[in-house]
């Protein structure tokens, strides 16, 4: 494993579902520290090729090290919505499999300077790539309470989103919101007392929502999954691991649109759109981690794997 602190989740079912053609071309759209990529390379033949994508500079360093170890692998510095351009740069018009491991990796959570975690004190940044976009602090300075409430509720599933959003902006105006620990404190005290000591920390969902917002992750998912399905050759597989219900629903719905024919409104007496399915489900019901994996790697508890396959031709 590229980094002993990072354990790849759902590794066995992910690799088994994705790498159907041992001589094929594959894309790891979320390279991270290369855990899944190395397992892919171990599964594939000497004729296979794997392209890794990431927008985290530290991940690119890990990818460049892997390139020196294995000539079958190449890494590209881009977000996963840049998947089509990255494939074209390799001269690939179609591939045998594309995998996504959405969310944030353990090494990123462990880096206090990124601001992803409330377990360590760090700046209010949360960017995957420090050279792109605006840090969380700057974005908070320009947002309304209603907008922030919507983000925390939709991206985090936080039922106390209104209270937390109001408290965040009040603390910001007072000049008392400067670090991740300050943000954690706001979330904790904005949560009703009887709800503060459950199995999930009161700041967890808000931190998740703000990270998704800062990095435009939902729009990235829409673009990347749509392009990935077009890039697959007949029989090619798409495997996606997500870690919360919002991401999983997004992935499911994007694939569902390509699985079912006809996009006409239900009230139409006959189909006039002419749309034909391009994908089929291999694993529609999400694969989840076993109890043994959860015990060895608690991060896997919320992981969900969905797998779909490109049809040979519209039917």
Essential attributes:
globular, Rossmann fold, seven-stranded mixed beta sheet, alpha/beta, 315 residues, DNA polymerase, domain 1, disordered N terminus, 41% helix, 2 domains
The CATH topology of the largest domain is given as Rossmann fold
What is the tally of beta strands?
Answer: 7
Distance N to C terminus? 42 Å
| Estimated helix fraction | 40-55%
Strand content: 15-25%
Instruction: Report the mean per-residue pLDDT as an integer.
Output: 89
Q: How many H/I helices?
A: 13
Shape assignment: globular
Low-confidence stretches: 1-5
Structural class: alpha/beta
- What radius of gyration results from the CA coordinates? 21 Å
CATH architectural group of the largest domain: 3-Layer(aba) Sandwich
Structure characterization notes:
It is a single chain. The protein is α/β, with parallel strands linked by helices and about 325 residues long. It folds into two domains: about 10-105 and about 215-310, Vaccinia Virus protein VP39 (Rossmann fold, 3-Layer(aba) Sandwich); about 130-215, Putative methyltransferase TM0872, insert domain (DNA polymerase, domain 1), CATH 1.10.150.170. About 40% of the residues lie in helices and about 15% in strands. The chain is built from 13 helices and seven strands. A seven-stranded mixed sheet has the order 3-2-1-4-5-7-6, sandwiched between helices. α2 links the parallel β1 and β2 (about 50-55). The longest helix is centred in the C-terminal third of the chain and has 15 residues, at about 215-230. The termini are far apart. Residues about 1-5 have low confidence and may be disordered.
């Amino acid at each position: 494993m590229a980094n002993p602190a990072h354990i790849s989740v759902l590794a066995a079912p992910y690799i088994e579902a994705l790498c159907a053609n041992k001589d094929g071309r594959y894309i790891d759209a979320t390279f991270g520290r290369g855990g899944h990529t190395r397992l892919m390379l171990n599964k594939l033949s000497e004729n296979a090729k794997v392209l890794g994508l990431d927008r985290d500079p530290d991940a690119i360093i890990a990818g460049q090290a892997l390139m020196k170890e294995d000539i079958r692998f190449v890494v590209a510095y881009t977000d996963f919505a840049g998947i089509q351009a990255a494939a074209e740069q390799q001269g690939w018009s179609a591939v045998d499999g594309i995998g996504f491991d959405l969310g944030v990796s353990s090494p990123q959570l462990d880096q206090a300077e990124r601001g992803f975690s409330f377990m360590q004190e760090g700046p209010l940044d949360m960017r995957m790539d420090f050279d792109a976009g605006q840090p969380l602090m700057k974005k908070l300075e320009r947002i309304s309470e209603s907008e922030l409430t919507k983000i925390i509720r939709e991206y985090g599933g936080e039922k106390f989103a209104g209270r937390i959003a109001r408290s965040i902006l009040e603390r910001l105006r007072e000049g008392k919101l400067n670090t991740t620990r300050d943000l954690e404190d706001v979330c904790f005290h904005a949560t009703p007392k009887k709800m503060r000591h459950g199995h999930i920390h009161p700041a967890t969902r808000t931190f998740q929502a703000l990270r998704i917002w800062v990095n435009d992750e939902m729009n990235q998912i829409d673009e990347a999954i749509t392009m990935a399905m077009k890039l697959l050759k007949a029989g090619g597989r798409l495997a996606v691991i997500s870690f919360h219900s919002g991401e999983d629903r997004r992935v499911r719905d994007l694939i569902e649109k390509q699985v079912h024919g006809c996009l006409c409104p239900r009230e139409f007496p006959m189909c006039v759109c002419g749309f034909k399915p391009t994908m089929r489900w291999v694993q529609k019901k999400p694969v989840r981690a076993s109890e043994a994996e959860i015990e060895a790697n608690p991060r896997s508890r919320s992981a969900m794997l969905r797998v779909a396959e490109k049809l040979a031709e519209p039917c």
